[in-house]
Write a structure and sequence with these properties.
about 325 residues; two-stranded antiparallel ribbon; single chain; Alpha-Beta Plaits; alpha+beta; about 30% strand
């Protein structure tokens, strides 16, 4: 009887895909096992092992849209020419694909397949940096024409597994924890932005905890205020994966501090993009403070860290200038 129950349990776990839609959905999610004759064999895509999600979100898009409409301009054309089209041209260079557009945000994915170099996070970091640089260049042209510029917030999240998919007719819909995580990474609270606007800092990403660890134990992310204006924030998992992909060298330099006693660290590394082509990235990690919401005063420093891929060209210029002076 025990053997019978075991066999029954095993057979219940097997589902025969009897129609094309079931086979297609199972194949996309890596759960289809095919037993084909030699003449039925087809070359299959390499298995996806991991993936990275990059979300680039436009800041204050509602205000920007109203401003364009008041000028008699088409906001759709404005976003397309100055944001979507330039970003789309970068995708083949980094092996990225567009997941979908979400209002004023564009969501991209880099899939890491079996047999390929494990460089998804570092390439996503360079792609994010290039997106910021391109939008910055377009903003200079828009400013000369008397038009409002674009401000972005970019989030990079990593998942150590392949994404899953649903089907809506012929349209594939990605399901991924990294996809959900990219949203808060790219977001920015208006209250924090107003407070940070008065400060002069070369960094573009900050995070503040508003309650104690015990009070926010169940849902800690709900009690974090984020600042991300023209910045690139990566998740903690993405940073740890980046340390495995490339060699990150710690940089010894006094960093500008927003609050007294802030603990920060910076690293630099070279990312291979193509044949003998490398791009330098600089990553900053900083300890997250717990603040008083009434006046933004620091109450204590938590054990949580947040990470930024530095998008300010002055940071790299300072470091390279210091290195050149040392020689």
């Amino acid at each position: 009887m025990r053997q019978f129950e075991t066999r029954t349990s095993v057979l219940d776990s097997v589902n025969l895909a009897v129609n094309d839609k079931s086979r297609q959905l199972s194949s996309m999610n890596g759960t289809l096992y095919q037993y084909l004759l030699p003449d039925e064999q087809k070359p299959s895509e390499d298995k996806v092992l991991r993936h990275v999600i990059l979300k680039a979100d436009v800041r204050d898009s509602s205000r920007l849209t109203r401003s364009l409409l008041e000028r008699g301009m088409n906001p759709a054309s404005y976003f397309s020419l100055n944001f979507y089209d330039p970003v789309n041209k970068l995708l083949p260079k980094y092996g990225a694909t567009k997941v979908f557009l979400e209002g004023d945000a564009i969501i991209l994915a880099i899939l890491e397949r079996e047999g390929e170099p494990a460089l998804a996070v570092c390439r996503a970091s360079v792609l994010a940096h290039e997106i910021i640089e391109i939008v910055r260049g377009y903003n200079q042209l828009l400013e000369r024409a008397g038009l409002p510029g674009l401000e972005l917030g970019v989030g990079i999240s990593y998942q150590d597994s392949a994404p899953m998919y649903l089907m809506d007719g012929e349209q594939r819909i990605m399901i991924s924890d990294a996809l959900n995580e990219s949203d808060p990474l790219s977001s920015c609270h208006k209250r924090v932005r107003k407070s940070m606007k008065q400060l002069e800092t070369p960094f573009h990403v900050y995070a503040f905890q508003t309650v104690s660890d015990a009070d926010g134990e169940d849902s800690p992310d709900d009690f974090i205020l984020k600042y991300n204006v023209n910045g690139i924030r990566m998740s903690e998992a993405a940073f740890h994966r980046l340390q495995q992909e490339i060699s990150l060298e710690p940089l010894t330099k006094n960093l500008p501090q927003v609050h007294e006693g802030e603990e920060s660290q910076m690293w630099s590394g070279l990312v291979p993009i193509g044949n003998d082509i490398f791009r330098k990235i600089i990553v900053r990690g900083s300890r997250m403070p717990q603040i008083d919401l009434r006046n933004f005063a620091v109450q204590r420093w938590t054990d949580r860290w947040y990470y930024e891929v530095c998008s300010n060209t002055e940071i790299q210029a300072r470091l390279e200038g210091k290195a050149g002076a040392g020689k």
